[in-house]
TrEMBL record:
Binding site for Zn(2+): H313, H317, E336
Presence of the UniProt keyword Hydrolase in the record: yes
GO molecular function list: alanyl aminopeptidase activity; metallopeptidase activity; zinc ion binding
Family annotation (CDD domains): M1_LTA4H
Protein known as: Aminopeptidase N
Length: 619
């Protein structure tokens, strides 16, 4: 008994130290909030600190309703302002008493400011509300839109500023809160959140959640469906529909190894649990790094672990993004550039430098494509953006991800990997559970890496100037060089040695297909398709780039047009969908694209649908 008592005391002291550390860091970083153009909140006057959410999920009416109760800190203000969009606000109280509230003018991107009257001694406000049919964060799916086709499904997507469409909240990345939640769902379904989660269904359909680490609003996430859990290790596991569970478990079986590799690089994993839920195919992103529970697209389930760099990417966000968050969406590159760098380091640690460099080179090609697409708006190719008056989604592209990565890789080559790793480890530790901005990062970089080692680096050019500086790291891959040689030989001779391709990874196939010249003939594409069955590839990434080339080059063989339409009606991943619709536009096949979109749009989350609407000129 004495032994267990001592262990209990140690555990309590450890937890207390952990909480004190978080509290101290929050206090240090919450004295002054930056002006923020994507939230109506005025946190320097009054700010939320904890959410207690009590909601009911109604699949018959497609409505979430309930009460969001907030603990607040008040700096002698008589009001607190939250963000709300497409919500019905029914009642508001402060310190348990009715209070006045006002919904301001509506903005198409930002929604409305929800202004609540408070007093100097107000410690808590409660908002009773319900979502509406226009709520953008939610996607309600019928049973037919799921893998098992037996039960409906619901998931949320809050990034960047959509959490305000399902919870009235101060929806700014620099405002971090803890939360508890009670979620009522139909008894046959399970609810999971970005918090401590159940591992199996209960009998009454009421689930309790707790997130003890402070997070920004965009990382509050909910999924409800007929799902099951399967552990990979004590701290990692997967959720999926029953028919997908074993496939997902096998595909992501290296998750614990990834966590260990990440910890070896940049310090302890501070979120206790790292699970992944594979959602129905309409999920608009490859993955979303919701703490403790990454949301993922089923398009990464290839059967050979070839696309699991996505898991490494979302895991890396546990440090860059979730632990240390961009203060505003103008600083988005601090989330994604760091995460791509970290992801590739994890992949190198587990699978070797060749695979890591292939991933980096594909990103480099994506960056060149993005630079070309943005040549008429060069300011959008800067790392530090000015998105005032625009939707922050406009900055969520290859500039933040791949130019951000290239900046850090170039810095690593200048400084040396050991120095770079020590710097990043200290950066994550110093800023843990807080937010930072580009200017503070530059100061930290100068003081803790460049000046310390007497190094001169063109940081300002990388961050504040358009395009890619001349000193960018050159990324090479022997594997890709061989792929390019094979492609050139085929284009000259119309012959290809199948044996040369037998051991190609999906990344090599993607590189092969993406590098088709503009004058490749239909006959040559037919030959490749007949030889390698590319139209019916089981790897979604290869399929996507092959379909893109088919559209651009007028290839119609092997029923590819029908397969493209089926793909666009099934897959809602925004990257894939917009790539193909963009190819239709470039090929001047816009009417064909619109015909496909008529049936496909209903399968897309609003994040994807809104992007395609704009691309195709649909109002």
């Amino acid at each position: 008994m004495k032994k267990y008592f001592i262990l209990l005391v140690i555990s309590i002291l450890t937890l207390s130290c952990h909480e004190n550390k978080q509290s101290q860091q929050l206090e240090e970083n919450s004295n002054t909030y930056l002006e923020e153009s994507h939230s109506y909140a005025q946190p320097n006057n009054a700010v939320i600190t904890h959410l207690d959410l009590d909601i009911n999920v109604n699949f018959e009416t497609h409505v979430i309703s309930g009460t969001a109760t907030y603990d607040i800190e008040n700096s002698d203000s008589n009001q607190i302002i939250l963000d709300s969009k497409y919500l019905e606000i029914e009642n508001v109280t402060q310190n348990g008493e009715q209070t006045e509230f006002d919904l301001g003018d509506f903005d198409e991107s930002l929604g409305q400011p929800l202004t609540v009257a408070i007093q100097e001694d107000t410690k808590q406000i409660a908002i009773t509300y319900s979502t509406t049919a226009q709520t953008e964060a939610l996607q309600w799916l019928t049973a037919q839109q799921t893998a098992d086709k037996t039960h409906p499904f619901l998931f949320t997507q809050g990034q960047a500023i959509l959490t305000r469409t399902w919870i009235p909240i101060q929806d700014s990345p620099q405002i971090r809160i803890t939360y508890d939640a009670t979620v009522k769902v139909p008894q046959e379904l399970m609810a999971v959140m970005s918090a401590e989660n159940p591992k199996e269904k209960n009998e009454n359909g009421v689930y309790q959640f707790k997130m003890e680490q402070p997070i920004p609003a965009y990382l509050i996430a909910l999924a409800v469906g007929n799902i099951e859990y399967k552990a990979i290790s004590e701290r990692t596991g997967v959720y999926a529909e029953k028919s997908m569970l074993n496939k997902v478990h096998e595909e992501f079986s290296d998750m614990e190894k990834m966590v260990v590799a990440a910890e070896n690089l940049y310090g302890d994993y501070d979120w206790d649990q790292f699970d992944v839920i594979v959602l129905p195919p309409s999920f608009p992103f490859g993955g979303m790094e919701n703490p403790r529970l990454t949301f993922a697209t089923p398009t990464v389930i290839a059967g050979d672990k070839s696309l699991t760099s996505l898991v490494a990417h979302e895991l890396a966000h546990s440090w860059s993004g979730n632990l240390v968050t961009n203060a505003t969406w103008n600083d988005f590159w601090l989330n994604e550039g760091f995460t791509v760098y970290f992801e590739i380091r994890i992949m190198e640690a587990l699978y070797g430098k060749d695979r890591a460099n292939m991933l980096a080179l594909i990103g480099r090609q994506d960056l060149e494509d993005e630079l070309e697409a943005l040549k008429e708006s060069p300011n959008d190719t800067k790392l530090k953006l000015d998105l005032k008056g625009r939707n922050p989604d406009d900055g969520m592209n290859s500039i933040a991800y791949d130019k951000g990565y290239l900046f850090l890789r170039t810095l690593e080559e200048k400084e040396g990997r050991d120095n770079m790793d020590a710097f990043l480890k200290s950066y994550f530790k110093k800023n843990a559970f807080s937010t930072t901005n580009t200017e503070d990062f530059i100061t930290y970089l100068n003081e803790n890496l460049l000046d310390k080692n007497n190094i001169t680096f063109n940081t300002e050019e990388w961050i504040y100037q358009p395009g890619v500086p001349e000193n960018a790291a050159i990324i090479e891959s022997d594997a890709f060089s061989n792929v390019e040689k094979t492609l050139q030989e085929f284009l000259k001779t119309n012959e290809i040695e199948v044996t040369k391709t037998e051991n190609w990874t999906p990344q090599e196939w993607v590189h092969f297909v993406r590098n088709f010249p503009t004058d490749i003939s239909v006959a040559q594409m037919q030959q490749l398709d007949d030889t390698f069955n590319l139209t019916d590839s089981t790897n979604s990434y290869i399929t996507m780039v092959w379909y893109e080339q088919s559209i651009l080059n007028g290839y119609h063989g092997n029923n590819v047009d029908t397969k493209i339409a089926e793909f666009l009606n099934t897959v809602g991943r925004r990257w894939y969908v917009t790539t193909l619709f963009s190819a239709f536009a470039k090929a001047e096949r816009i009417e064909e694209a619109k015909e496909i979109y008529k049936t496909a749009r209903g399968n897309y989350h609003s994040v994807t649908a809104n992007t395609v609407d704009e691309m195709l000129g649909i109002e």
